[in-house]
Task: structure prediction
Amino acid sequence: MSSEIPRLWAPWRGEWIQSQKELRKDAQTEKDKCPFCEMPAQGPSDETLVLFVNERIAVIMNKFPYNPGHLMVIPRTHAALPKDLSPAVWNEINQAIPLVMECIQRSYSPQGFNLGMNLGQAGGAGIPGHLHWHILPRWVGDTNFMPLLAETKAINAHNLTIYARLEAEFKDFAEKLADAMMKSK
Result:
């Protein structure tokens, strides 16, 4: 038996993929009803799950977290791809991410983190038109059989409890971010 994976050629699939191009374009550029545009505009609250917002970025809790403390850093600019962000926004996001990780570390003492973004629907983005960074705290043994067998993730705290715990860490976030921005110049 060969170790090479067999290939099934289906060139007709290319035509279908190309026919979906306009649908993908619309999903990436649509600003109407974008939660990552609407939630920060309402400001920080346990209702919106926004922990921090300024004119360029926001930090919000994931409404459907993988683990407690699963946060997202989002640009206020509605953009689907990193190339669509200004250098100032890109820099501010890069300065904010380590500070967000520190807030999570003080609140939950994770043993590690997953950090990344899903770009486009095929890349796993739930909101493909507005890019965002996930900051996910991890602990040894935080995986179990539930997601595999029952397609269910058990979270050990309610979002309102998680928000209240994290909110205290974000009281002086604006000052810390401003300081980090000054040092990055």
Notes: Strands lie at 50-53, 57-61, 71-75, 112-116, 133-138. Helices lie at 12-19, 21-29, 35-42, 87-108, 146-150, 159-167, 173-184.
